[in-house]
Amino acid sequence: RNSMPHIKKAVDVGVANSPDSLISGDPISPRALSKELQQVRKGATKQHLLQVSNPKMLRKELSRHRESSTLAERRRLFKDLLLRWHPDKNAGDEVRAAEMFQTLQEVKEWFINDE
């Protein structure tokens, strides 16, 4: 016999696995949960992209991100990357910043357009 029926019930009705959801028993639709997970994944991807410091790796990650993001998300991310790698914002690491900024300029049209 299940010693924690509230947990089984929560899983059966598609409730998120957060402690609050398990206690309240509020159901979350699979679609809403999926959308929430996608947002978490995109946030993690954005943070990862902002940490990439190799031009070749940046191109690879941008390619992956382009396939899974909307145009608006890509434009927002691109702006954040330009600000992150602008040579004036990277005193002491101008050479790498210039390489990354140059890479961003080279992929700009491809990344921020739907063509």
Outline:
This protein has 115 residues and is mainly α. 73% of the residues lie in helices and 0% in strands.
Describe this structure in words.
This is J domain-containing protein. This protein folds into 2 domains: 1-41, no CATH class; 52-115, Helix Hairpins. 73% of the residues lie in helices and 0% in strands. It is built from 6 helices and no strands. The protein has helices at residues 5-12, 19-24, 30-51, 55-68, 71-85, 94-112. α4 (55-68) packs parallel to α6 (94-112) and α5 runs antiparallel to α6. The relative contact order is 0.09. The model is unreliable at 7-17 (pLDDT under 50).
Number of strands: 0
Q: What Rg is obtained from the alpha carbons, in whole angstroms?
A: 20 Å
Number of domains: 2
Task: Report mean pLDDT, rounded to a whole number.
Answer: 77
CATH topology of the largest domain: Helix Hairpins
Contiguous low-pLDDT stretches (5 residues minimum) are 7-17
Question: What share of the residues lie within helices?
Answer: over 70%
Structural class assignment: mainly alpha
Portion of residues in beta strands equals under 5%
CATH architecture call of the largest domain: Orthogonal Bundle
The CATH C-level name of the largest domain is Mainly Alpha
Number of helices, counting only DSSP H or I runs of 4 residues or more: 6
Element-by-element helix/strand order: HHHHHH
Shape: elongated
Major sheet description: none
